[in-house]
Specification:
The complex is a heterodimer.
Chain A (H helix, E strand, L loop, with lengths): L3 E5 L3 H11 L1 E9 L2 E7 L17 H4 L3 E8 L6 E7 L2 E6 L1 H15 L5 H7 L2 E6 L25 E5 L3 E6 L2 H8 L5 E2 L2 H17 L11 H6 L6 H8 L5 H4 L7 E7 L5 E8 L20 H13 L1 H6 L9 H5 L6 H12 L1
Parallel strand pairs in A: 2-6, 6-7, 7-8
Antiparallel strand pairs in A: 1-9, 1-10, 2-3, 4-5, 4-12, 8-9, 11-12
Helix pairs in contact in A: 8-10
Chain B lengths: L1 E4 L8 E10 L4 E7 L13 E6 L3 E6 L10 E6 L3 H7 L6 E8 L5 H4 L3 E7 L3 H13 L7 E7 L8 H9 L4 E6 L9 E2 L16 E6 L2 H13 L7 E4 L15 E2 L2 E2 L6 E3 H4 L7
The chains are: A alpha+beta, B alpha/beta.
């Protein structure tokens, strides 16, 4: 039980305040109309413990929408100074889907050659997970993605068991950060039993949301290239890029220069980019290998369900449902998968 | 937000000094560039570099010279976008940022001891020139070398001084065609595919290297297959617009491959079933 601790709910407010004294704490905050966002908090009352996936995933802290990668001054010729912008912080309340999102990014950006900007930041962010008891809403497909139960990716993990949270201390960093609050207590066998009961109940709540098994999804995509599903999506997709912007595992970027007004100094920045944008796959001469929107959406789905399996032996979909929730054309990932599964059968 | 300075980063550029420029056509300009201290770029034929102008941006450009030329390298830049237009304003003595080389390059070790059939269309001659010159500089390592070159009009022909030399060499078979001739052109007129049926080759020991505009590949490859060259011996260099060169930004992805890391050189058997590749 050494790796487990408990925090009485009555101590939760003091716990968050104690964390916030030490460093920035980011947690889900209600923004109205059932929207939530990770934002800096200093008090527990600001935190929405019950929340559906935030508008943007915690990816925004690991790989910000826009970040400086080089600074330059042309007084010194074409010389540049690489930089990393980072903030030491604690992320509190990260659901299992978003933990998996960070794990996917870790894999892709650790692959040789390593992304130093991402990796430098990764080690400075302490992650405290928070377990879901039930589905966030009808868009989630976390069981299908084998993601409804915690699977690492955190420094500490909270499960709400009524009067108290049981906490899995997964790393020394987690142990240190939480230990310094002096509010967590050792757990006992009975706390562990309660956790097991909670998980057992969860197993009956979370069921495959799409009529296919986790393993078989890849087979679906082995045969889906010429599916009419993509032309159906092409008729609806507005190419707004919302789906990729909110995806916890999308990491494509563009690189742009931002000169200062003196035109001598400036910085080179990378910004999130989207495979849904018109210019993304365009080559010299103006030709694009993925011109129509169906091909662009197909590429997005293949980047979640086929290509990463070949490269990293895992799907890059977390089942968070953000892409469906945010789609202006109501393109729904669960419906797309269901249509593709039907075609296979 | 804290900032920390890094000594090394994949995004860090080296300072390249332009030694010489040559306007080749109204749209194409050649740059000969040296790295600080005469450092060798240490590239393989077929690799590319990211060329940067601070305040403007970066663009992927194929290295056109052979690595046998050690103390400098050559790039041919077509004026097409923001970065390349700005590059065209530069002259000898100016500096540019260089990252790389990136990509896999042509598999020289596997090519040695075999016959080569090199097929270049239009601007495809730019990366292909690196392997042609490498082959010529290491001529005894290769069997029969055949070069087929095609372009739209005689005015679009790049490196005509060098192609003249290839034409006069006894140890290289060279043929050139244009889609549309002019009053002075007395060579072949027709698409590059029209040159392939007329050449004699031993398919088992011939590696074909193909680079050109996207439209060219399917037709040229069909002709090469007709000639009996095995799929794994047809080597293509593909073009994509890379933004990072390190297999992360996603722009150059072709199915599960990143063109900047796994390519831009692929054997045909690897990509033949990948739609969106050619």
């Amino acid at each position: 039980m050494k790796q487990y601790a408990i925090l009485q709910k009555s101590h939760f407010a003091d716990f968050i305040s104690a964390l916030a004294v030490e460093q920035s704490v980011m947690a889900p905050v209600a923004k109205g109309y059932d929207n939530y966002a990770f934002e800096p908090v200093t008090r527990a009352s600001q935190i929405a413990l019950k929340h559906i996936p935030t508008i943007l995933p915690p990816k925004k802290y690991f790989m910000p929408p826009s970040e400086t990668i080089l600074e330059y001054s042309r007084r010194e010729g074409e010389a540049v100074h690489p930089v990393v912008e980072y903030e030491k912080m604690i992320l509190f309340g990260v659901h299992t889907c978003d933990l998996m999102g960070v794990q996917c990014l870790n894999m892709a950006l650790s692959e040789h050659p390593e992304d130093i900007n991402y990796l430098s930041r990764k080690n400075k962010i302490a992650i405290i997970g928070l377990e879901c008891e039930d589905y966030c809403d009808e868009y989630a497909s976390c069981h299908l993605m084998a993601n409804d139960l915690p699977n690492g990716g955190y420094d500490a993990f909270f499960t709400d068991l009524g009067d108290y949270f049981i906490i899995h201390l997964n790393t020394q960093m987690g142990d240190d950060v939480l230990g310094r609050t002096k509010l967590i207590e050792p757990s006992t066998e009975s706390h562990w039993d309660e956790l097991m009961k909670f998980r057992e109940k969860k197993r009956s709540v979370f069921k495959n949301e799409v009529p296919v098994t986790h393993q078989k999804i890849k087979e679906v995509f082995d045969n889906a290239w010429k599916s009419p599903v993509w032309s159906d999506i092409a008729k609806r997709c507005l190419a707004c890029s919302n789906c990729t912007n909110v995806c916890p595992t999308c990491y494509c970027f563009d690189v742009v220069d931002e000169p200062d007004l003196d035109l001598i100094t400036g910085r080179r920045r990378r910004k999130w980019d989207s495979c849904q944008s018109a210019s993304f796959a365009r080559v010299a001469g103006g030709e694009s290998f993925r011109e129509d929107r169906g091909a662009k959406q197909r590429h997005r789905y293949y980047r979640k369900f086929k290509y990463p399996v070949e490269r990293f032996f895992r799907y890059f979909c977390t089942g968070c449902g953000r892409c469906s929730r945010t789609c202006m054309a109501k393109i729904n990932l669960k419906e797309t998968l269901t249509s593709l599964v039907k075609e296979l059968n | 937000m804290k900032k920390t300075a890094l000594l090394e980063s994949e995004f860090k550029t080296k300072v390249g000094k332009i030694l010489r420029t040559r306007q080749m056509t109204p749209l194409e300009k050649l740059f000969e560039i040296a790295l600080p201290g005469g450092e060798s770029l240490d590239h393989l034929p077929g690799q590319f570099v990211m060329v940067s102008l601070l305040g403007v941006g970066e663009a992927p450009i194929s290295v056109s010279s052979s690595p046998t030329k050690r103390r400098s390298f050559e790039l041919v830049v077509r004026k097409a976008g923001r970065v390349t237009t700005a590059l065209h304003r530069l002259e000898a003595g100016d500096e540019v940022g260089i990252r790389g080389p990136f990509g896999n390059g042509f598999p020289i070790r596997y090519l040695e001891g075999n016959d080569l059939l090199i097929v270049a269309g239009g601007l495809g001659i730019v990366p292909i020139r690196s392997i042609i010159n490498y082959t010529i500089d290491n001529r005894r390592d290769f069997g029969k070398v055949t070069i087929l070159l095609g372009c739209r009009t005689p005015k679009d022909l790049l490196f005509s001084d060098e192609t003249d030399k290839w034409n006069h060499r006894l140890d290289v078979m060279f043929e050139c065609t244009v889609d549309r001739g002019d009053a002075e052109w007395d060579g072949n007129v027709g698409l590059i595919t029209s040159l392939i049926p007329g050449i004699t080759l031993e398919p088992d020991r011939t590696f074909a290297i193909v680079c050109g505009p996207p439209i060219m590949y399917k037709f040229v490859i069909a002709k090469l297959l007709e000639k009996g060259i095995p799929e794994r011996q047809i080597i293509v260099s593909l073009e994509r617009h890379m933004k990072c060169g390190i297999g992360k930004c996603g722009h150059c992805q072709i199915h599960n491959y990143y063109c900047c890391q796994d390519g831009p050189v692929f054997t045909y058997d690897k990509i033949k079933n990948l739609e969106e590749a050619i």
